[in-house]
Design a protein that fits this description.
13 helices, single chain, alpha/beta, binds glutamic acid, disordered N terminus, five-stranded mixed β-sheet, 374 residues
Length: 374
Amino acid sequence: MTSFFRTAFYGFCLLNLMSGAALSQDQAASPTVEAIVKTKVVVATRVLPPFIIEDGGNFSGFSADLWQELARRARVEFTWKKTSNVKEILAAVETGAAQVGIAAISITAAREQQFDFSQPMFESGLQVMVQNEAEDDFSMRKILGFFTRGAMPYLLGLLALLIIVPGHMVWFAERRHKEPAFSSQYFPGIFQAMAWALSAAAGQQNNSLNSRIGRLLSVAAIFISLLFLTYWQAELTSSFTVEQLQGGINGPEDLPGKRVGATTGSTSAIYISSHGSTLQEFQKIEEAIAALEAGKLDAVVFDAPVLLYYAANNGRGKVRVVGQIFRKENYGILFPRDSELRKRVNEALLKMREDGAYDNLYDRWFGVQGGQRI
Ligand code: GLU
């Protein structure tokens, strides 16, 4: 009996203990679970296709989709805060107006001093974009530019001299001859004489002159025209090669002294202003590209995937990306210093890389599109 009661008593205590333990486990666990479920953050972003695309108040694009999946996996509730540029994203996270920043934010040494970044979420880099001038596009600006470049103005001046001076000399000389080759009236005689000088400069002499000075000049013209034509040809060739065939800017080495656009506060803006080009900053990369298309800029330097995406879509045929990626950069998700969220987001990001979700997302946005990988 005693042993029955003792067993029952112990059994009762054990049960109590177990439920108590279970209860206290629950009580201990619930605030943590609550905290995870209820983490609410504001995420600062900016529109930058194909990373952030705004459609009807919603955000899509590689970075927006990535963040949505990361937030789901890390159990983070969030609201978007739209800003105008990367500078404003940094400011929002710095002031605490946002707890996360995501778009196409390059991880740089200077930013790392002030903020914490996630693991790299995308490999990027800077590239150059120029206006696409079709080879048969002979705009007035192009033609004028062609005649005002290099030694061309001097050659044109020399040609004018070679027409006016010898033209007058032969007209005067011929006029005195009994059988003049040109009309002895100043008009139209001088025009005939200058036409002779022009064809002489071009290496062709149609009229044979009768005066002694005229004949002497005809012989001199053979040598002068030879020199002149050789020089003219060399100048034309170099002018064509530099401007027409290669388009002038083929990479970052051609940018010093040029008008180059980028977005406000971006890594490309810093690059441009520290490499001898005239920087023009824009809020949206589309505005910079519009200025390029309008001939107000010579080039745009920006993140390669953004430029390639534009060139393959809206900018097809209007712009082209030249040269290699000349500065590699990684994008990261931005957090304030010592954010406890970073570890959870990093874990989710690494898991996405391991289980293939990252690759699927990458292919969705950067896969083969219309035969062209962007
Ligand atoms: N990757 C650039 C940066 O972080 C993007 C700038 C931008 O969003 O315009 O500076």
